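Sanity check

After download, print the first record. It should look like this:
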Amino acid sequence: MSLNNTPSGERIHIGFFGRRNAGKSSLVNSVTGQSLSVVSDVKGTTTDPVRKAMELLPLGPVLIIDTPGFDDVGELGELRVKKTKEILRETDIAVLVVDSAEGKTLQDIQLEELFKAKKLPYIIVYNKSDIAQKTDCGANEISVSALKNDNITELKELIGSMLKDSAQERKIVSDLISEGDFVVLVTPIDSSAPKGRLILPQQQTIRDILDKGAVPVVTRETELAQTLEKLGTKPAMVITDSQVFGMVSKIVPDDIPLTSFSILMARYKGFLETAVKGAFAINSLSDGDTVLISEGCTHHRQCGDIGSVKLPALLKKYTGKSVNIELSSGHGFPDDLSGYALVIHCGGCMLGEREISARRSDAELADIPFTNYGIALAMMNGILRRSIAMFPALLEYAEE
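Expected C-alpha cells:
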C-alpha cells in the first residue's frame, strides 16, 4: 500500500439506506459519477453492501456504501436486513433514500429512528423528483432525481457540510515529539510480515513523524541494540511492534520512553483508556472462560500470526488457565458478547473510529472488559506502566 493512499479506516463512511427500489443504487451511481451499483427495476437487486472510495469536498476522502433494501423479505431478505444494520456500526453519515412518489413508509421511519438512536448525522433524500417533487424539505432534507441528475451537486454539498464542524485533527505520535527528534521504530520481519511492505500502522506512524519534521529510524528487533549504540544520540521514543515487547523492553534503557504501534493506534482511535482498564480482566480469567480476539482486517493468518497464535499462547502461559479462544476479523464482530469473559481487539487501523467505538460500547453494555493487543501484551510482559508513561492520566489505572 502506498503512503499516498488513504486507508478505509481514515475515510468518512457514508451509508445509503432505504427500501428496495427507492433508487439507492441509482443515487450512489450519480453521487460517485460511476456505474458502481447494479440498477434494475427488479426489487432487491443489491444483495450485499457495495463500497466505493472517493473524494468528496469539503469532507475529503470518503467511503460510499450502498446497502440492500431494508424492506427485503424471506429468509435471505432477513440476512440482508441484518447486514444493513451491521453497516450502521461503521457509518459516519447516513443517507436515507425515500421514493418521492410514495413518501415515507414504516421502514423509512424505522431507519430514521435507528439513526437517531445511534446519534448518527443523517440526510433524508427524496428521490425521483422527476416523478413527484417534494417542495417542503427540512434542513436535513433534499429532493433529487438520480435519473435526471437533478440536485446531485447540491446533495453532495449537503453531505459535505454534515461533519465539517465536528471534524477533529488527530495525531498518532507527532504531538508527543518535537521537530528534529529521532524516533526509533522496531518492525519485526518474520513469516507473518507482509512481503515487500510495512503494515499500515507502521506506515502511518512514519508519515506522522515525518510531518512533524522529526526523524524516523526503522530497524528490526535483532538490530535494535546496535542501532541505539550507533545512533549517537538518545532517541525521543522507541515504538515497537507489540509482539516483541518483552525483548525490546530489555534492550531499551529505562530513561528512553517505550510504547507500541498498537497502543498508539488505540489512542488514535479513541479507546486507550478503556483498553488499559480492560486489560486487568486477564488476571481474573478462569478455566473454561472464552476470550474473543478480534482483528479489523482480513489478512491471511500464518503460522506466526499474533492474533491466532502468539496472543493465545501467551494468555495461557501467563494465566495458567485453560481458556477458550474465539477469533473474528474484518467487519464480522459478534452481535452478542454475553458469552465472553474478555475482548482483546487489534489497534483498529483498518476500521473507522465510529466502528471501533460501537464495538467498545457493545462490550460496555454487556459488561465485558475490552482491551487491545498492545496493552494486553505490555501487561503480560510486566511493562504496562512503562508503555503508557507518556500518558500520565492513565497511570492510575495501571497499578501492577
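If your output differs, re-run the checksum step. Summary of this record's structure: Residues 291 and 342 are 5 Å apart (CA to CA).
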